[in-house]
From TrEMBL:
Any one GO molecular function term: metal ion binding
Record organism: Ferroacidibacillus organovorans
Alphabetized UniProt keyword annotations: Lyase, Metal-binding
Lineage top rank: taxon: Bacteria
Protein name as catalogued: Cobalamin biosynthesis protein CbiX
Pfam families: CbiX (PF01903)
InterPro entries for the chain: CbiX-like (IPR002762), Sirohydro_Cobaltochel/CbiX (IPR050963)
Length: 251
């Protein structure tokens, strides 16, 4: 018997949590859980229960000795690199015969890129005046330089495939700040929140977008990515085949 944990960050925003629940329910419905050989649960890193450790502990006590954590995160900043492994450390120590496998962040995965491209293309179809718009790729941001390098890689990939400028920026942390990027972009703007779900970060993005629109500038903002079918397909593939999952070991 093995267990699959669908791991989200968690937010105080009920809409964002509902979006995560909906996505994980759709992924779970497509998995073959007949016979009880695969157990699936969703859990959170923080702010909402059930916690990662709580779910993992329950499966270990029930006899599971292979646990796979599918990460509903876009970039490998502090949470993915440090917080989640640290939360598993006591369980790895206590259950020496169990194996823990952690999936990769999703930010530069093909399915996520396709969802982002689709969001921009939909925006252009709905707003023809934005046909030559600059895309602002907006992430939450962090102090992690390697994570920002991944954001730059995503921006380059999207720019090549959309054949238009894509300017990466962040609400907080290293890199160009979103509020400054809004000033640099002089023509029509498509704001692409590179986020999976609704939350405080998206609200802050929307507030800045509204302020720019009130100035009479041409700007449209797309929806977050989590509700797109390409995103569901990506996480289903991850849950099924565990591509690029890494076995966690205490260093």
């Amino acid at each position: 018997m093995k267990a699959l944990l669908l791991v989200g960050h968690g937010t105080r925003d009920d809409v964002g949590n509902d979006e995560f629940v909906t996505l994980t329910e759709r992924v779970t419905a497509r998995l073959d859980t007949r016979g009880g050989e695969l157990r699936v649960s969703r859990c959170f890193l923080e702010l909402r229960a059930p916690w990662i450790v709580e779910c993992a502990q329950a499966y270990l006590d029930a006899g599971c000795r292979k646990l796979y954590l599918s990460m509903f995160f876009l970039f490998a900043a502090g949470h993915v690199k440090h917080d989640i492994p640290s939360s598993l450390h006591p369980l790895v120590t206590r259950y020496g015969d169990a194996s823990f496998y952690i999936g990769p962040p999703a930010g530069n995965a093909e399915g996520i890129l396709q969802a982002a491209i689709s969001r921009v293309q939909d925006a252009v179809r709905e707003h023809p005046a934005h046909s030559d718009a600059t895309v602002l790729l907006v992430v939450r941001g962090s102090s992690d330089q390697a994570a920002w390098a991944d954001v730059l890689q995503v921006a380059r990939a999207l720019s090549d495939r959309l054949s238009r400028p894509v300017l990466p920026c962040a609400v907080v942390g290293v890199g160009l700040r979103f509020k400054d990027a809004l000033c640099f972009a002089r023509k029509a703007i498509i704001v692409l929140p590179y986020l999976l779900f609704t939350g405080n970060v998206l609200r802050e993005i929307h507030e800045l977008c509204i302020a720019v629109q009130r100035e009479g500038r041409m700007l449209t903002c797309t929806s977050p990515l989590g509700g797109h079918p390409f995103v569901e397909d990506y996480f289903y593939q991850q849950a099924t085949y565990h591509a690029n999952f890494v076995k966690y070991a205490i260093e």
